[in-house]
Write a structure and sequence with these properties.
With 970 residues, the chain is of the alpha+beta class. Helix content is 18%, strand content 31%. The protein has 15 helices and 50 strands. Strand 32 and strand 33 form a beta hairpin. It is globular. The N terminus is likely disordered.
């Protein structure tokens, strides 16, 4: 028995000819690729990417992004993230926008080896974009870009000998992603490029300005009192949302909102996701909120009511969901509505439905139906209920063709009482003007809420502390509400710029940024030393409205990169003084901001001593620290040198080669389950120079067990990067009647569908193996099922299971490539008592999985599920543990081939999809969606068109929907 599963987006052929316009929302940049990622790369064949600073060597050729022909600069403009001109490439279905080329002339081929330098950034999708870089049609790099998102970064690629030629040469950058369209991730953006010798460096991009802060001699009423004769504030609603904040952060900020006369607080819909990094994004919007979440947010709602602040309950049912909501399906709407009904039962009267950063072209009617339906049900219970909607095109003037049609549909069909969110002239921008606001409102014909993307840092390691600026003083004439987007996790220091936002929103007529930031300092500091320290901190991190560069721009690192030795040391001294000042003057405040500054100081490399690359923990008791240079082992393993917030370091252990730079600290249980904060002093480098270390690392919610290994010392389980698990494991086998292995797991109840990447299995012998396991208990003879693979020497995928406690283990094998695969993924799926084991060498989201085994097993509802590793030690085989490296553990989120419109004429629509995205897909059609859908095979057979399959379907007077479907075994 089988069923058909949807593996692609729906295409509405009535609007198929419209270009898809989609830019990523500011606040996802950086975080999607990993909250705690540190950009350190190297050792890859054929290329490397490093932080580049300094210059002085002449280049062979230099280009701006605008010098590249093709790309998408003609689609959406050439000014982004504080740079211009830039160019950018989208996925292959975007056609000409998927590739860009620059040409240059050489009188003769340079004698020195040449390198291509790029000043670029990646998108905000969960993984870095696949790109291909070629010079004169010779590929010099192909793979994931390696560039960060939300801020510019410089990378360098070697050009092989013989590629450059006298005369005309070409540099081409192509986006090789097979799914995606113009305007949506995955994309790759280029600011500058150069060709030159190995020592050539692109000069640092100049900051657009600096900020000098004056501390007022005396406090003034804050916000600035209204002008004479003015009885109401500029914006009727003035407040913030939280950027992925926890309930504790909301509760901490509510009193401050009241102090600065803000009256509105919306939860960030990310805060209500089923899981968040470092565990990964999951949005099970159809499930009831856990009791603990309801209890915590009931406290937030109550605190808002006590402080006369309007709380707005918000959700996004589409983003990062394995089951995106069907906007016209009444069953889906019922599932979403349960959350709004719960909030309403606690006295909430304001609500928001956010459909930003999801497909929207041609979906205005569906979006309006969803919002209207939920809004009507809320008003049945409370006639004063209010609704805000965040649409697809939430920025700009609304005049381009796709946005205009969508917004005009909202104007006609969205309930007239619904407010609409708008971020300004751009998604993020230094200027928000009255003219553009009026244009957008004229198009959408609904009242507006300004969602101001300042001072948001998108979880990047930087601060934006300068005052709000560039917002027109008469915006309130066309906008009813103002909502700022704050930094995270630095919500305490965020009060400095947030106070200026409150000052502007309350009295825009008299707003003065310089006066406002000075008064904000007086709000947060009680004595002159504290005020001077906050002034220094603001001037170090004046904010992207002053410096340009976007939400991820770090002015300290930018200034350091372009400075000489004397200026670098002076900057490092300033950072060190700020850190010491925060420790002494604000000992219990601004800890997250202090850690940001400390990490910048470590990054400069001027403080001496070892440098820390990353910090993370598998289970909260074993803390992994990764260093870049030689460390004195004895000083680093001394527990007395560490201070752990909420816990105590007990011991330290260095891992063996090739991980000799990874230190595992064993600690007591932490009082915060999600992260650990650690400082250290007296840690020396190999030359005996001591330095200070400060780190904040995520804690994954795993537990660690040694099963059947007896009294052997517990093995070190490290997280060299968030989302990875590295262990030097022992164990005799996972077979027979009793198991002996290392296990990192979490408890899961009910059905699941999980994947795991196996990056490395060391060779103890040909039977050494690891993979993904579900287990009834920690007993050595427990019932279990596992899917994994062996080390080199035994070229098989493997699934094994024990159906009864103490019974023999049974195994099934599937062929594997002779060499250990570099992209080895396994998948374990539970559906009641059916357990399906799969393998895949094409990626964890690729739809082509090979079924290794299917079993009916009677196992408890709650299982221990996680990563298992056994060295398969044998007598005389030595006692050294075996190295295993896993990553990517999480829910299976398939990414199938995306449908695209290849052409449209008077009678037919040509629909295509990539042939290399997976097998077994067929095109189905329906005249409706949701419960009324009746999906039938499309009558036209597909034909090969280049690298795509193409089907020509007739245009119909009725709306037709198409999707790709493929069978999957029960």
């Amino acid at each position: 028995m089988s069923k058909m599963q949807n593996r692609s987006f729906v295409v509405n052929t009535r609007l198929a000819a419209l270009a898809s316009l989609k830019l990523s929302r500011s606040y996802f940049a950086g975080y999607l690729a990993g909250m705690w990622r540190v950009m350190v790369w190297g050792g890859l064949v054929g290329w490397s990417i490093v932080q580049i600073c300094g210059q002085g060597i002449a280049p062979t050729a230099v280009f701006s992004g605008g010098d590249f022909a093709g790309g998408a600069k003609g689609f959406y403009g050439a000014s982004f993230y504080g740079r211009q001109p830039v160019n950018y490439v989208y996925a292959q279905p975007s056609g000409p926008a998927a590739s860009m080329t620059a040409t240059f002339e050489l009188a003769a081929v340079p004698a020195a080896i040449q390198f291509l330098a790029l000043d670029a950034m990646d998108d905000d999708a969960p993984e870095q974009c696949h790109i291909r870089i070629s010079v004169n049609d010779q590929i010099i790099f192909e793979g994931r870009s390696g560039f960060p998102d939300a801020h510019w970064f410089q990378g360098q690629y070697r050009i092989p000998d013989g590629v450059l030629q006298a005369g005309t040469n070409r540099v081409t950058i192509a986006n090789t992603e097979i799914s995606g369209s113009a305007g949506v991730p995955p994309w790759f953006m280029l600011s500058r490029a150069a060709i030159g010798p190995a020592d050539y460096r692109l000069p640092p991009w100049p900051a657009s300005g600096q900020l000098q802060v004056t501390i007022p001699s005396a406090p003034r009423p804050f916000p600035e009192p209204l002008p004479e004769g003015q009885t109401t504030p500029g914006f009727a609603f003035r407040g913030i949302k939280g950027w992925n904040w926890d309930p504790e952060q909301y509760l901490a900020e509510i009193p401050f909102l009241k102090t600065v006369k803000m009256n509105f607080l919306m939860n960030c819909y990310l805060s209500l996701f089923s899981s968040r990094p470092p565990q990964g994004w999951a949005n099970n919007w159809w499930e009831p909120l856990p009791g603990s979440v309801k209890s915590n947010y009931a406290d937030v709602i109550q605190a808002c009511q006590t402080n006369d602040i309007t709380f707005c309950f918000a959700m996004n049912p589409q983003l990062f969901s394995s089951r995106p909501l069907n906007e016209t399906d009444d069953g889906d709407i019922d599932a979403l509505y349960q959350h709004y009904a719960w909030a309403q039962s606690h006295g909430v009267r304001w609500f928001a439905i956010c459909l930003d950063d999801v497909a929207w072209v041609g979906r205005g009617t569906q979006h309006a139906y969803l919002v209207n339906t939920v809004f009507a049900r809320l008003r049945q219970q409370d006639a004063d209920a209010q609704m805000i909607f965040c649409p697809g095109p939430y920025w700009g003037n609304g005049q381009d063709q796709a946005a205009r049609q969508y917004l005009e549909t909202l104007a006609d069909e969205l309930h007239p009482d619904v407010y609409v969110f708008w971020t300004g002239d751009g998604v993020v921008g230094a200027q928000i003007t009255h003219a553009v606001a009026q244009s957008y409102r004229d198009r959408v014909q609904h009242r507006l809420f300004l969602w101001d993307n300042y001072p948001v840092n998108d979880m990047n390691p930087t601060l934006h502390l300068g005052p709000a600026s560039g917002r027109a003083t008469n915006l309130h004439e066309v906008i009813d509400g103002y909502m700022g987007n704050p930094m995270s996790p630095q919500n305490e220091i965020d009060r400095l710029p947030r106070a200026t936002c409150a000052d502007y929103a309350y009295n825009p007529w008299a707003y003065d940024p310089a006066r406002s930031i000075g008064q904000a300092i007086l709000l947060l500091a009680t004595n002159n030393p504290q005020r001077e320290l906050l002034k220094e901190l603001i001037e170090l991190y004046p904010g992207f409205l002053v410096t340009g560069g976007g939400t991820g721009f770090n002015p300290v690192r930018n200034a350091f990169s372009g400075a000489d030795a004397v200026a670098r040391q002076a900057l490092a001294d300033r950072l060190n003084a700020v850190i010491n000042g925060l420790d002494t003057l604000f000992p219990n405040r601004f800890r997250a901001a202090r850690n940001t500054v400390a990490n910048d100081l470590v990054w400069t490399g001027t403080v001496g001593g070892p440098r820390l690359v990353s910090a993370a923990s598998v289970d909260g008791q074993q803390l992994s620290l990764v260093f870049t240079n030689g460390v004195d082992y004895s000083s680093a393993t001394n527990p007395a040198n560490y201070r752990l917030v909420g816990g105590e370091v007990l011991s330290g252990q260095w891992l063996p080669a090739p991980d000799t730079n990874v230190l595992v600290l064993r600690a007591t249980d932490l009082n915060h389950p999600d992260y650990f904060a650690l400082t250290a002093s007296g840690i020396k480098d190999a030359q005996g120079v001591a330095g200070a270390i400060s780190a904040v690392g995520p804690v994954a919610d795993f537990k660690v067990a040694n099963i059947g290994i007896g009294n052997t010392t517990r093995q070190a389980n490290a997280a060299p990067q968030p989302g990875q698990w590295l262990t030097y494991s022992r164990g005799k086998d996972i077979f027979g009647t009793n198991d002996s292995f290392n296990f990192v797991y979490r408890e899961i109840t009910g059905d699941f569908d999980l994947v795991l990447r196996i990056q490395h299995i060391g060779f103890k012998n040909e039977w050494t193996r690891g993979g993904l396991m579900a287990r009834a208990s920690l007993s050595a003879d427990a019932r279990n099922v596992m899917v994994g693979t062996y080390a080199d020497g035994t070229p098989y995928w493997m699934s094994s299971w024990r159906a009864t406690e103490g019974d023999l283990t049974i195994a099934a094998l599937a062929p594997r490539r002779a060499a250990f695969p570099t992209n080895a993924w396994v998948r374990l799926r539970r559906k009641g008592s059916i357990f399906l084991s799969y393998c895949n060498e094409r990626g964890g989201t690729h739809p082509d999985w090979t079924l290794v085994a299917s079993n009916y097993l009677y196992l408890p509802a709650q299982l221990l599920v996680g990563m298992a590793a056994s060295a398969i030690e044998v007598a005389g085989g030595g006692n050294a543990p075996t190295r295993f490296l896993f990553s990517g553990f999480g829910a299976y989120q398939p990414v199938g081939p995306r449908l695209s419109i290849q052409s449209v004429d008077g009678n037919t629509v040509a629909i295509s999809w990539p042939t290399n995205a997976g097998s077994g897909f067929a095109l189905f059609e329906s005249t409706a969606l949701g419960a009324d859908a009746n999906w039938q095979p499309a009558t036209a057979e597909p034909t090969l068109s280049g690298s795509d399959l193409r089907t020509d379907v007739p245009r119909s007077a009725n709306t037709m929907f198409y999707r790709l479907m493929r069978p999957e075994p029960e």
